[in-house]
Design goal:
- The protein has 297 residues and is an alpha+beta fold.
- It folds into two domains: 84 residues, 2-Layer Sandwich (TATA-Binding Protein), CATH 3.30.310; 160 residues, Endonuclease III, domain 1, CATH 1.10.340.30.
- The chain is 45% helix and 14% strand.
- The strands form two sheets. Strands 1-5-4-3-2 form a five-stranded antiparallel sheet. The chain has a two-stranded antiparallel sheet with strand order 6-7.
- β3 and β4 form a beta hairpin.
- α5 runs antiparallel to α9, α5 crosses α12 and α11 packs across α12.
- 31% of the residues are buried.
Length: 297
């Protein structure tokens, strides 16, 4: 089918976004090639593979199948718009960055970098649980094992594209099965319990969206076994794009703050609140750019 064109907003860099999605980690949920991204997702109850490239003015979306209905095409375009946060005007954030003595360089060095989301709240929470208290390399290894054992695949040319497992599948997985993949007993229990809640409808993206406040969303999530404040904030930042979400205690965030001499040590919380207050309404973007600063590639 003919490619679909998605207009690129100002202050958007596809190259920066591809860098973030790659970073030399073994992420099984997409394939990165020079200037190109390939991915498969389940959308409108249908598994769809697609590729994404860019020219000067548009993202170029190509679906792997020729039988995409107009509704499916529209849903996929909206997915990408949300994934790359394309509808947000980030110029106010850049104005705040430009005023900060130690962070102003980010305006130029990371120009066009966007808060890249995880649309599926269930996937975002699972990923957060997987990543608790282990390094990123091992976290990606565990995610790959989970996806390859329990997810689904689409063949796309020379690539096999993976889709994250459904809660209806993982709710029936045993602790022993996950232990055999090197998950800890607790993480296995957390993932199975979370899957059961999503499978029976007790928790969903819509239940969170119906909450009256961000604080109510955090409370709802932290009432789930295995989800603490860090996990809740990470998921709200990545899935619902809650701008005030700050994953407090995140090691990468603390290291970035130390690197910029914004805190004196990792226990220095007194300076964090005033810093984020200066970026009110853009807290999650500040976190994302601080994470970006951990590598100068």
């Amino acid at each position: 089918m003919n490619p679909l064109l998605i207009p690129k907003p100002s202050l958007f860099s596809f190259e920066e976004c591809l860098w973030f999605l790659n970073r030399n980690y073994d992420d099984c949920l997409h394939v990165i090639e020079p200037g190109k991204l390939s991915k498969a997702i389940c959308i409108n109850e249908q598994n769809v593979g697609f590729s994404l490239e860019a020219n000067e003015s548009h993202l170029i979306l190509t679906m792997e199948s020729d039988n995409g209905s107009p509704a499916l095409q529209q849903a996929l375009q909206q997915y990408i718009i949300e994934w790359f946060d394309l509808e947000r005007d980030i110029s106010p954030f850049y104005q705040l960055l430009g005023k900060h003595k130690r962070l102003s360089y980010m305006v130029q060095d990371y120009a066009g970098f966007r808060l890249i989301g995880i649309h599926d709240l269930y996937e975002a929470l699972c990923w957060s649980i997987i990543g608790q208290q282990i390094n990123l390399t091992f976290a990606y290894t565990l995610k790959r094992r989970l996806v390859e054992h329990f997810g689904t695949t689409l063949e796309s040319g020379r690539h096999t594209l993976h889709i994250f497992p459904k809660p209806a599948v993982l709710q029936h997985v045993t602790v022993e099965q996950l232990r055999n993949l090197q998950f800890s007993t607790r993480k296995a229990e957390y993932l199975i319990h979370l899957s059961q809640l999503f499978a029976d409808g007790s928790v969903s993206r819509s239940t969170l969206e119906q909450c009256k406040s961000y604080e109510e969303q955090v409370a709802l999530l932290t009432n789930i076994r295995g989800i603490g404040v860090w996990t809740a904030n990470y998921a709200l930042m990545k899935s619902l794009k809650q701008m005030q979400a700050i994953p407090h205690g995140d090691v990468g965030l603390l290291n970035a703050l130390l690197n910029h001499q914004l805190i004196d040590d990792k226990k220095d919380l007194s300076k964090m609140a005033p810093l984020f207050k200066k970026f009110k309404g853009w807290e999650s973007y500040l976190v994302f750019y601080l994470w970006r600063s951990l590598s100068h590639d």
